[in-house]
Amino acid sequence: MPIERSEWIWIDDQWKPWDEATVHLTTHGLHYGSSVFEGIRAYDTGETTAIFRLGAHIRRLLDSCRIMRMDPGYTQDQIEELCVEAVGRNRLESCYIRPLIYRGNEEMGLNPTDCSSRLAIYAVRWGRYLGEEAIEQGVDAAVSSWRRFNSNTAVPLGKISGQYVTNQFVSIEARQHGYAEGIMLDDRGLVCEGAGENLFLIRDGVICTPPLYNSILGGITRDSVITIARDLKYDVRFQPIAREELYLADELFMTGTAAEVSPVRSVDRIPIGSGSRGEITHHLQEEFFGLVEGRLPDRHDWLTPVPRFTVATPAAGA
After folding, report:
1. pTM of the model
2. Catalytic residue selected from 159, 222, 265, 277
3. Are 142 and 202 found together in one domain?
4. Please, which residues have CB within 8 angstroms of residue 72's CB and are 6 or more apart in sequence?
5. Residue 303: inside a domain, yes or no?
6. Does residue 193 belong to any structural domain of this protein?
7. Same domain, yes or no, for 114 and 156?
8. Can you list the pairs that 223-231 forms with residues at least 24 positions away whose Cβ atoms lie under 8 Å?
9. What confidence tier does 132 reach under pLDDT thresholds 50, 70, 90?
10. Residue 7: predicted pLDDT
11. Residue 233 among the catalytic residues
């Protein structure tokens, strides 16, 4: 999806205009993928703009830094405050927030330990990742020829930029074959996740999702949907899922900050259930969107309100 420019970006320890937020060509993170990132959504609740599960996202960002042996240079509270300001300073109502911590350009080569860590944050308007119609109509997916790496090869629990090359291959392959998204299996042939989403399967009223040891990313939206489903008294189970179980599901849906809660209507051209959004998926969507959009109480304290910034033209570096 195209990026819609906003006005201000946090980089080099200051706020800079969009066109001035640049890095040098020799930046280590650009050459070797030595950076970590998060994707966070903010929603218009009617009364204010609120960021969804900001604390959980920034904690995972710092966890990824720990895995990468990177000193983030900022505390969790500082990064959270900057994310809030990125939304308010750009006067955004609903948006996507991208904090990125990357290694600088003090060293070349594969040992980056002498490189500094730098933080950048931007916030932009961004629509439905899998298409505006995906939430109601669902999407067509396919099992990818690309496999998800295991924890002896890379770090499934880390949101590390360099690891997303495989995810790009999955997404490209799916689009080239006419699908909205690809689904990865692990090295044993068990279901992992989509190119950028976690996966849930429903059969006979039971909601199943692969456990963390199936080489998946511990998704924040995944965790939120599990919590919502249990609030609604659904039976949620963590268990390995075989490829053929996808075809036998009554319902299937994907979750993620970008995809939110999106039904899957077919896999490998085999319809899932009736081939349309199922009742349980719809129920979970109603609860999820009702909460993030302010129509239902924020019973888990997941929303961080954003103050309305009144400064029309803040100075660069302010």
Report:
1. 0.94
2. 159
3. yes
4. 61, 62, 65, 79, 101, 117, 119
5. no
6. yes
7. no
8. 223/56, 224/52, 224/53, 224/255, 224/288, 224/302, 225/200, 225/255, 225/261, 225/284, 225/288, 227/300, 228/284, 228/287, 228/288, 228/291, 229/284, 231/287, 231/299
9. confident
10. 96
11. no
Domain that holds residue 88: 8-124
Least confident of 121-135, 214-228, 295-309: 121-135
The answer to whether the CB of 210 falls within 8 A of the CB of 188 is no
In a domain, 234, yes or no: yes
d(CA 227, CA 236): 9
Q: Specify whether 288 is located in the same domain as 155.
A: yes
Q: Are strands 206-209 and 260-267 parallel, antiparallel or unpaired?
A: unpaired
Mean pLDDT computed over 98-115: 94
Looking at the fold, whether 148 and 100 belong to one and the same domain comes out as no
Q: Tell me the mean pLDDT in the region 138-160.
A: 95
Number of other residues whose CB lies within 10 A of the CB of residue 260 = 24
Q: How many structural domains comprise the chain?
A: 2
Four-residue CA torsion sign, 253, 257, 259, 261: positive
- Asked if 167 and 230 sit in the same domain, the reply is yes
Pair 265, 177 in one domain: yes
Q: What's the pLDDT tens digit per position in 32-76?
A: 999 999 999 999 999 899 999 999 999 999 999 999 999 999 999
| CATH number, domain with residue 179 | 3.20.10.10
pLDDT tens-place string over residues 252-275: 999 999 999 999 999 999 999 999
Work out the average pLDDT over 93-104: 97
Q: Are residues 143 and 115 both part of a single domain? A: no
Q: How many whole angstroms separate alpha carbon 109 and alpha carbon 62?
A: 24
207 and 177 co-located in one domain: yes
pLDDT tops 80 at residue 99? yes
Residue 206 lies in a domain: yes
Tell me the CA distances in angstroms from 211 to 106, 108, 208, 308, one per residue in order. Answer: 39, 38, 9, 40
| 280-284: average pLDDT | 98
At which of 93, 124, 155 does a domain end? 124
